[in-house]
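Appendix B, Record 12. Input sequence as logged:
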Amino acid sequence: MLVKRILFVAFALGGMLQVRAQSAKHVVLISIDGLRPEFYLDPAWPAPHLRQLKQQGVYARQVVGVFPTVTYPSHTSIVTGQPPGKHGIYYNTPFEAPKGRWYWEDSSIKTPTLWKAVKHAGLTSGAVMWPVTVGAPIDYNFPVRRADGDEKTDQLSVTRPYITPAGMLDQMAAAGNGTVTADDFKYRDVDRTIGRMGAFIFKQYQPALLAIHFIQADHAQHEHGRDAPEVKTAVAVIDSMIGRVIAAVEESGQTSNTTIIVTGDHGFVDATQSVAPNVLLEKNGLISGDDWKAKFYTTGGSAFLYTKKAGDAATTQQVEQLLRQLPHGDQWFRIVTKKELEAIGANPEVELALAMKKGFVASNAIKGPLIRTKPLGGAHGYYPDFDEIYTGFIAAGNGIKKGSTLARLRMLDIAPVICRLLGIPPIGNGTVALPDIFSNR
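Logged structural output:
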């Protein structure tokens, strides 16, 4: 009996020590919207902190994303280890949603998230501007919530009711980090604001998991193309804010206990032409005013076919024939079959998709020309099977082997890696069988 008690006490103490050890570990997950690997591989880009992290840890030359390669599905895959077809965030905005209705709420996600896994392990989490986190079980959270889908409106007043804890920004000001105003969310300042909040959350609360989403590199590439001077300016600002977060870790005395991961959601493609597949459907009687038998929903470099009657094989076949009969269609896009969509884990509600070729984007327009010229701008949303659309990955710090390079990593592998680093049960269908990443601990 005494032996059993001793074993029980030893087991209990061991469990307590394990929890304490885990709670002393931290992962800072940084997403750069529109991150391309050359930001840290090419010294011409103004990113000294990214290159320093790359030298101190592990980096990937390519990270293969999900389909479509857009922000909200990708960020949800990062924190679930699941593709859109499983986690349920198919695009940035739901099909036929009213104006301003995006996938804001955590309740839209159908599979376990890192936030939930961390909470179930008795640890804490924080997030700044991470998509699909309104109402998420995040202890220190400044989520994304906008009015009317317009990123130029007052982000702060719209988001304030969803901040947890409610007084977090007041605590930030009281701690000498300055007040946060509506002007701080204008594009010229937004990433500085995000970096400032991220650094404060780590230093003040030291959560086990802190996720930070920087957005200006995406905006600059959309507006000006992949390699415009404005993109380099955006990257320089983001890199400086990553430096600020690293400094907060150091000032907290947690450098040896912290892993910093930098990743992204998609790359970018310069596009000068737009294809409107719904024009083809309207001309052939499949769309008539508000009524339709088949309709494409487009998101950058892809278009997804819905049929009014789910699984309408005859209508799907008709659409596919119309597409294949286009004289130059194969120069604009390739058809992604239902079987391919299932294999890559895309939206199960659609019958087929169009993967646009480089230089082309898809449009939701129903009237006008099928193909039209557009001003030069960057785009994403493409099928993740070519260099320009891949994103990147760097990991450095606690638990990470120094000096390793991965030729390729899947976005779905990131959540299981974070779970292993935090010592919590894994989520997702990725793999932690990545011996070149982890150090012996």
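Residues 1-24 have pLDDT under 50 and may be disordered.
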